[in-house]
Amino acid sequence: MTATPAPADLRHDWTRAEILELFALPFNDLLFRAQQVHRAHFDPNQVQVSTLLSIKTGACPEDCKYCPQSGHYDTGLDKEKLLEVEKVIEEARAAKANGSSRFCMGAAWRSPAEKDMPYVLHMVREVKALGMETCMTLGMLDEDKAKRLADAGLDYYNHNLDTSPEYYGEIITTRTYADRLETLDNVRRAGMKVCSGGIVGMGETQNDRAGLLQQLANLNPHPDSVPINNLVKVEGTPLENEGDLEPFEFLRTIAVARILMPQSYVRLSAGRETMNEQMQALAFLAGANSIFYGEKLLTTPNPAAHQDQQLFAKLGINAHLRTACEEQVPAARQEHPLFYNACA
């Protein structure tokens, strides 16, 4: 294996064979290498915290087999209209007060309709005015809509690749892999930061997990944020009875993502609610340095905020709480001094 590349030599030409070699390393060697890369680019004891809100739920026309919001499946989820702007701002204020530095808004759309764009742009401007970073996931974007979102001040746009090109057709048939890559290109050219990752535990092979990471790592530049989701099995979806991914394989995926994309934030996303503290601690050791904060991710459960605070305190991890620090939240600081000591 070659030495860890210097920051000036970030690679965008990884082969599948090279990535599978990383997956095959002894577990301790893989984590050691990932931790070395992580420390070269990040504070190893700091985690960025984001909050995710569903601004429009259900009745999505896509047929993603993992998604409870797909209109193709009966998951008992009620269809909801686009949230009013003031409701979104209220949620953003609460997220900021709880310590989130980034507010992410997701809508169950194939792509945003023109009639909804004024409301979406207003949401971006209002959340931005609170001093938070903004992120949205609205489905596919053309050049014009990407530019308008960027002009409104949107910092990040999330659009996951989900899995490898080879396995993609087993999971989704209503949009192509090329469609996803085109959206990412439109986002980047509009000047926004790219948030793109995938989901593991959908019945894919290790080769598919390597293929997903290869696609992400060979984007130039790398995605700024890389969410790694562990499948949340929802009753009524085609994947509700899928077997669990072996935990060490999930951790290997995190570590390989860190090695391939040294300067990207690697986020523990969906599925964290079923991980014990020890598994999450190993994920941070493997190079994860971002989480979603709050008890719900769109429609699926997430650990309660106090559980994350307690875990961070045990591990000596500082949350990236710029907005909370600016607000000088005395009660939270007193109750969780280690959680807030990044303010010092």
Model description:
By secondary structure, the protein is of the alpha/beta class. Helix content is 40%, strand content 15%. The protein has 13 helices and 12 strands. Strands 1, 2, 3, 4, 5, 6, 7, 8, 9 and 12 form a 10-stranded parallel β-sheet that branches. Helix 3 runs parallel beside helix 4 (117-129), helix 8 runs parallel beside helix 9 (247-260) and helix 9 (247-260) runs parallel beside helix 10. The chain is globular. Mean pLDDT is 82; it is low at 2-6, 73-78, 295-301 and 321-344.
The percentage helix is 25-40%
Treating each run of at least 4 consecutive H or I residues as one helix, how many helices?
13
Kindly, what is the distance between the CA atoms of the first and last residues, rounded to a whole number of angstroms?
41 Å
Low-confidence stretches: 2-6, 73-78, 295-301, 321-344
Structure class: alpha/beta
Specify the biggest β-sheet.
Answer: 10 strands, parallel
Roughly what fraction of the amino acids lie in strands? 5-15%
Radius of gyration: 19 Å
**SSE order, one letter for each helix or strand:** HHEHEHEHEHHEEHEHEHEEEHEHH
- Number of E strands: 12
Which term fits the overall shape?
Answer: globular
Q: Taking all residues together, what is the mean pLDDT? A: 82
Blueprint of the fold:
Elements (H helix, E strand, L loop, with lengths): L15 H8 L3 H15 L4 E11 L28 H13 L4 E6 L9 H13 L3 E5 L5 H10 L3 E3 L6 H7 L5 H13 L3 E3 L2 E3 L5 H12 L7 E6 L16 H14 L4 E4 L8 H9 L4 E3 L3 E2 L2 E2 L3 H11 L2 E3 L1 H6 L2 H6 L9
Parallel strand pairs: 1-2, 1-9, 1-12, 2-3, 3-4, 4-5, 6-7, 7-8, 8-9
Antiparallel strand pairs: 10-11
Helix pairs in contact: 1-8, 2-9, 3-4, 4-5, 5-7, 8-9, 9-10
